Structure formats: C-alpha cells, structure tokens
Amino acid sequence: MNFGVHLKRLNRRTIAFSKSDEMHDAVIKLYVHYHNHKL
C-alpha cells in the first residue's frame, strides 16, 4: 500500500475515535513521523 492509502485509512479510523481536531492532527503528525523514520 502506498502512503496515501495509509493516510485515508488512518483518517477514517481517527474520525471514528476522536471528535477533536487537535487530537486528529496530532495522530496524523505522529503517523507521518513514524512512517518517515520507518523507511
């Protein structure tokens, strides 16, 4: 899977769990950081 597909899936999951925009942004930033350092 490519990065865009991962972000779309992550977005669907985080919206289901968190209604806070700040939390959603934090989760996306953590995921991007993890993904960049994993490569």
Distance between the termini: 14 Å
Give the helix/strand class: mainly alpha
Radius of gyration: 10 Å
Number of domains as seen in the coordinates:
1
Count of DSSP-assigned helices: 2
Number of strands: 0
Question: How big a fraction of the residues is strand?
Answer: under 5%
Helix/strand order: HH
| C-alpha geometry | flat
Quick one: biggest sheet? Answer: none
The level of helicity is over 70%
**Overall pLDDT level:** 74
Low-confidence stretches: none
In a nutshell, what does this entry contain?
The chain is mainly α and 39 residues long.
How would you sum up this structure, described in words?
This protein is mostly helical. The protein has one domain. It is 85% helix and 0% strand. Helix 1 runs antiparallel to helix 2. The two termini are 14 Å apart. The model has no long low-confidence stretch (mean pLDDT 74).
Topology:
Layout: H1 3-17, H2 21-38
Helix pairs in contact: 1-2
Question: What features would you highlight for this structure?
Answer:
single chain, 39 residues, mainly alpha
